[in-house]
């Protein structure tokens, strides 16, 4: 008997030594009885291969968690994770390209459509036109974040995801077209299509973040969501590179004098194609990923917890994870009947559980984007003010585009892109709270370090130092709150409200971007009326504007105290969706502490 037992134990490598036992009817009978046990051992070995010993223990002990959701939480990093990052990330690549490339061509638009050849300086966009061209996409983004965030919770992430991408492709192309050739018609057409471009971009924020958070495992979820957002850095970099290539090509074809040497000869009609090509190129990466977005299955958390279809969720994720998953319809029914699954966005229960969290995510994103977008959209003005870019009259129209693109590409390459990917590498080790707090702290420090001795930095021998310090503010915004404000709202709210709450948080950020874009446009003007840009009233100057941004960053650090730490926890644990009736959700200072301990 003891020998028969050994034959069907996990030590299967010694089965050759026991084959003689199988010659007896009794041994055959015993072997057949042990087949289920053997199948269990084999299946357990396969699961260990996919997830690992520690993860198997979690899978077995999942308790009230749906098996399909727990399988996603404990899965090792697999190919589908990278596929999801690329598919969602290319949307953000396009978002950043489209939002920030406009700052590369506004000077060119001013020269083409608003130059008065009788004056000593080339034309610039009038203040109201500059504000509209720069800010209209941000207004569209704000509206899109609210609308598509809400729609993503009502219709499903996947159904809305393709719609936002097609809107971005169509409007990217259309923004390079014009109804008429006079300044008013060109600017009206540009603003109209950039608003709807922004509307599509806005939908990408809550949907991409929510989809990635719901696909990711809990150990590396922060890195995966941050990696999607980090594609924004490559989008900004690509905008600069495309502008460099296009402007270099035109500059070599038309070797023109500067505006100072020849007012009329510093520009040719063909330059009107330059800004159109740069804007329209944003449609290419978005169009390339449309097919793959449509092939992605709906997230299991939406299908199970919101659509309440356990069978479909298990079927979809079985294909994704390449492992059989059970459709636990009875367990799902128990979960969705829980009171934790029934409160709405405007209920007292939501305010009690997540009210302060929503305040924290919205206010910190609002304050961050005031600083971030004012810096990004008006880099060219700051570089001109410190003399890093020559005066406009000393360049021809296309060379000015080249110099602006080169400066912004250098900043993106040396600080923006590295900052994003340092966050990706460290967010699941250092935690969201720590990175956001430290990021706001150093942004505050470097802003004040630039602003207080501003006259020192404007001297020719110190200009490189200014650019280095300015780059460090970008590094710590991206290795800091610019990434974490995107990640956290996709983790801490219930599945049925996750996309909506992320959309609200992101829309608050875009409201800050609008304040930064419009406010800084006027505030950064020189105090001396004779030194302001054409058509602008005197402002408070670059120095005082930087001081204001430093104060804003400080308040961002304060409001970070309202944001919970979400590192290493499942989405249902963070949102309280698996708790029994009456149990508390995550609280500041509770199980998901604000300050890591």
UniProtKB/TrEMBL annotation:
A Pfam family reported for this protein in Swiss-Prot or TrEMBL: Sugar_tr
Record membrane topology: Multi-pass membrane protein
Domain Major facilitator superfamily (MFS) profile: 84-568
Single GO biological process annotation from the record: phosphate ion transport
A GO CC annotation given for this chain: membrane
InterPro entries: MFS_dom (IPR020846), MFS_sugar_transport-like (IPR005828), MFS_trans_sf (IPR036259), Phos_permease (IPR004738)
Subcellular compartments: Membrane
Alphabetical keyword list: Membrane, Phosphate transport, Symport, Transmembrane, Transmembrane helix, Transport
CDD domains for the chain: MFS_PhT (cd17364)
UniProt biased composition (Low complexity): 583-597
Span list, region Disordered: 572-597
GO molecular function, one term: symporter activity
PROSITE patterns with a match to the protein in the record: MFS
Claim: Transmembrane helix is one of the keywords in the record: yes
Transmembrane domains' residue ranges: 20-42, 82-109, 129-148, 160-179, 223-250, 273-292, 409-427, 433-452, 464-483, 503-524, 545-563
Family (UniProt): Belongs to the major facilitator superfamily. Phosphate:H(+) symporter (TC 2.A.1.9) family.
Entry protein name: Major facilitator superfamily (MFS) profile domain-containing protein
């Amino acid at each position: 008997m003891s020998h028969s037992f050994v034959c069907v134990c996990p030590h299967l490598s010694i089965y050759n030594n026991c084959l003689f036992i199988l010659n007896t009817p009794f041994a055959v009978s015993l072997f057949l009885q042990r087949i289920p046990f053997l199948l269990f051992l084999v299946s357990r070995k396969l699961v260990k291969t996919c997830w690992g010993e520690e993860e198997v223990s979690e899978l077995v002990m999942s308790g009230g968690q749906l098996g399909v959701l727990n399988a996603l939480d404990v899965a090792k990093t697999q190919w589908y994770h990278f596929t999801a990052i690329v598919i969602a990330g290319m949307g953000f690549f396009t978002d950043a390209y489209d939002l920030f490339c406009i700052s590369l061509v506004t000077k060119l638009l001013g020269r083409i459509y608003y130059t008065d050849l009788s004056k000593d300086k080339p034309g610039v966009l009038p203040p109201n036109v500059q504000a509209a061209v720069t800010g209209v996409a941000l207004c569209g983004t704000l509206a899109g974040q609210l609308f598509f965030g809400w729609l993503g919770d009502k219709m499903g992430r996947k159904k809305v995801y393709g719609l936002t991408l097609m809107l971005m492709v169509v409007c990217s192309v259309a923004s390079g077209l014009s109804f008429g050739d006079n300044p008013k018609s060109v600017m009206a057409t540009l603003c109209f299509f950039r608003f709807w471009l922004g509307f599509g971009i806005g939908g990408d924020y809550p949907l991409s973040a929510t989809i990635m958070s719901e696909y990711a495992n809990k150990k590396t979820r922060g890195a995966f969501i941050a990696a999607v957002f980090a594609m924004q850095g490559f989008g900004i970099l690509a905008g600069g590179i495309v502008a460099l290539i296009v402007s270099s090509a035109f500059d070599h074809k038309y070797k023109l004098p500067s505006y100072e040497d020849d007012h009329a000869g510093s520009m040719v009609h063909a330059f009107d194609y330059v800004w159109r090509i740069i804007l329209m190129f944003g449609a290419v990466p978005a169009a390339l990923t449309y097919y793959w977005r449509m092939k992605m299955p709906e997230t299991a958390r939406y299908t199970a917890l919101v659509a309440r279809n356990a069978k479909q969720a298990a079927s979809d994720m079985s294909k994704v994870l390449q492992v059989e998953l059970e459709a636990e319809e009875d367990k799902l029914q128990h979960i969705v009947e829980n009171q934790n699954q029934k409160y709405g966005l405007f209920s007292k229960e939501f305010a009690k559980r997540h009210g302060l969290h929503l305040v924290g995510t919205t206010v910190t994103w609002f304050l961050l984007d005031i600083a971030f977008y004012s810096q990004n959209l008006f880099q060219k003005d700051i570089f001109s003010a410190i003399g890093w870019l020559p005066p406009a009259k000393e360049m021809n129209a296309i060379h000015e585009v080249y110099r602006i693109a080169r400066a912004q590409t250098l900043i993106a390459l040396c600080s923006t892109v590295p900052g994003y990917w340092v966050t990706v590498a460290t967010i699941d080790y250092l935690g969201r709270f720590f990175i956001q707090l430290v990021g706001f702290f150093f942004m505050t420090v470097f802003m004040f370090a630039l602003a207080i001795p501003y006259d020192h930095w404007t001297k020719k021998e110190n200009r490189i130092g200014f650019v280095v310090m300015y780059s460090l503010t970008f590094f710590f915004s991206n290795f800091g709150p610019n990434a974490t404000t995107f990640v956290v709202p996709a983790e801490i709210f219930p599945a049925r409200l996750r996309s909506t709450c992320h959309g609200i948080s992101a829309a608050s950020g875009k409201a800050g971007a609008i304040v930064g874009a419009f406010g800084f446009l006027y505030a950064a003007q020189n105090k001396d009326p004779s030194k302001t840009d054409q058509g602008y009233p005197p402002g408070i100057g670059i120095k005082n504007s930087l001081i204001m941004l430093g104060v804003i960053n400080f308040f961002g650090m304060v409001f970070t105290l309202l944001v919970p730490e979400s590192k290493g926890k499942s989405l249902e644990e963070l949102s309280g969706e698996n708790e029994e009736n009456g149990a508390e959700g995550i609280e500041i200072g509770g199980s998901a502490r604000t300050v890591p301990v």
